[in-house]
Amino acid sequence: MEQTEKPKASAEKGLLEKIKLCLSKKPLPSPTERKKFDHDFAISTSFHGVHNIVHNQSKIRKLIWSVIVLGSVSLVVWQIYSRLVNYFTWPTTTSIEVQYVEKIEFPAVTFCNLNRFRTEAAAKFGVIFFLWNIVYKVVHLQEIRSNYSGFKDATDFLESHQNFSITEFVKKNGFYLNNRTLLECNFFGKPCGPQDFAHVFTEYGNCFTFNHGENIQAKEKVSVSGRGLSLLFNVNQGEFTDDPALGFVDAGIIFVIHSPKKVPQIDGLGLSSPVGMHARVTIRQVKTVHQEHPWGECNPNIKLQNFSTYSTSGCLKECKAQHIQEQCGCIPYLLPGNGIECDLQKFYNCVSPTLDLIELKGLCTMGTHNSSCPVSCEETEYPATISYSTFPSQNALKYLSKKLNQSQEYIRENLVNIEINYSDLNYKITQQQKAVSVSELLADVGGQLGLFCGASMITIIEIIEYIFTNFYWICILFLLKIPKMTQGAPPPGHHLEKRNHIEEC
């Protein structure tokens, strides 16, 4: 180690000696030449006011101009400092703009039945309600306790059904979409059907998305306001059921309107339409653009593995799924990823404590740029206004009863009519913008320099050249004087020898 350090030290010393030798060969200007250089700079510089100090013979005028120049320089320094402080607070402004277009993209709409399971399957596997409730509570960070009623029945059931999969059960025995449950479908004057819907899993089990991102309908755009998607559902209460003890006491369709590129988030955002009602929904499109850090909180570099488009909800799901898979070796239902599905024992023994740990340590946070899931840089939302009317009317009731070969009571208790339209062919852009850009900062600083000192970029280069030349001369001066001072002073050992010699004499 010491051997490697010695060559480095000697190399640095050799380079320094070369620099000293090069500078010592340069002639040092005389005091007269240095004064002339200073005078020439003062009378030729484009920095206003300096030549007035040099040219004036009156001491009073020189003093006045010196005060003016120093005051102007002080004001410039203060103004530039305040501009730089303001710039590095990363200020932003928010602009709202309404864009009118001839055609506008229709959003995706995900529909779910409020009664999630087929009655026959639920009667055969009565514990499924409790199992589903356990899954739902874990995914939404709610505590699981072993003293829940039915917990022992659930564990006994899973012990006797080792290969039982909640996912497969829901997929086979949950709500389905066909010509019996979707009686009518009309999109912008064109007929549509179950084939235009994509299956997705949510907390409501089997759900179906119209105008999915991978669906051909996503390429179509609406060109007339007041027309859009019209649907007539048959929720078939006799065939599908849910457990009222768990809070599922409604009958109808719950749906959420979202971007075709994003996964549906029904919890907290879903709109409900009860049976025997006609729900008229008018929507408008709102785009929000966030600035990246440090002006905003978004991070454009974050990509999701299981979703094509970044969203905070999708990021949180992936974050929780990753930590659970690392700790438990499985992935809970409703969370994305490729892995083994967690059974109830894993939910209780591992998944629930892991989610508590995630919440306690803040492993999956959202909002700021340095959190696990910052806000998305661009997102599209569809604020909705919904109104209801009784469906069907008396005449329509007789017509539908005859057409479907069902009783009028059945029609009232099972049919749901939903209509989704654009209110106007425009969309609103809410955009976060930089309040001060680099070019604006430079323009502001240049304006202050020009206003108070008449200075420009060339003036700054003149001053830098002047300072550099003087610094260069100072270096030469020190290199020439220091060796002479050390050579002229006698070494301390010489004095000691002389004193000893005197004492000996």
TrEMBL record:
One of its GO terms (molecular function) is bile acid-gated sodium channel activity. Its main location: membrane. It is a multi-pass membrane protein. Keywords: Cell membrane, Disulfide bond, Glycoprotein, Ion channel, Ion transport, Membrane, Sodium, Sodium channel, Sodium transport, Transmembrane, Transmembrane helix, Transport. It catalyses: H(+)(in) = H(+)(out); K(+)(in) = K(+)(out); Li(+)(in) = Li(+)(out); Na(+)(in) = Na(+)(out). GO terms for cellular component: apical plasma membrane. The keyword Transport applies. It comes from the Eukaryota. The keyword Cell membrane applies. The chain crosses the membrane at residues 63-81, 463-480. It is found in: Apical cell membrane. This is one of the three pore-forming subunits of the heterotrimeric epithelial sodium channel (ENaC), a critical regulator of sodium balance and fluid homeostasis. ENaC operates in epithelial tissues, where it mediates the electrodiffusion of sodium ions from extracellular fluid through the apical membrane of cells, with water following osmotically. It plays a key role in maintaining sodium homeostasis through electrogenic sodium reabsorption in the kidneys. Additionally, ENaC is essential for airway surface liquid homeostasis, which is crucial for proper mucus clearance. Forms bile acid-gated sodium channels and may play a role in bile acid-dependent absorption and secretion by epithelial cells of the bile ducts. Displays high selectivity for sodium ions but can also permit the permeation of other cations. The gating could be indirect and the consequence of alterations of the membrane environment of the channel by bile acids. As a sodium channel of type II unipolar brush cells of the vestibulocerebellum, controlling the electrical activity of these cells, could play a role in motor coordination and balance. Belongs to the amiloride-sensitive sodium channel (TC 1.A.6) family. ASIC5 subfamily. Forms homotrimeric channels. PANTHER family: ACID-SENSING ION CHANNEL 5, AMILORIDE-SENSITIVE SODIUM CHANNEL-RELATED. This is Bile acid-sensitive ion channel. It comes from Canis lupus familiaris (Dog).
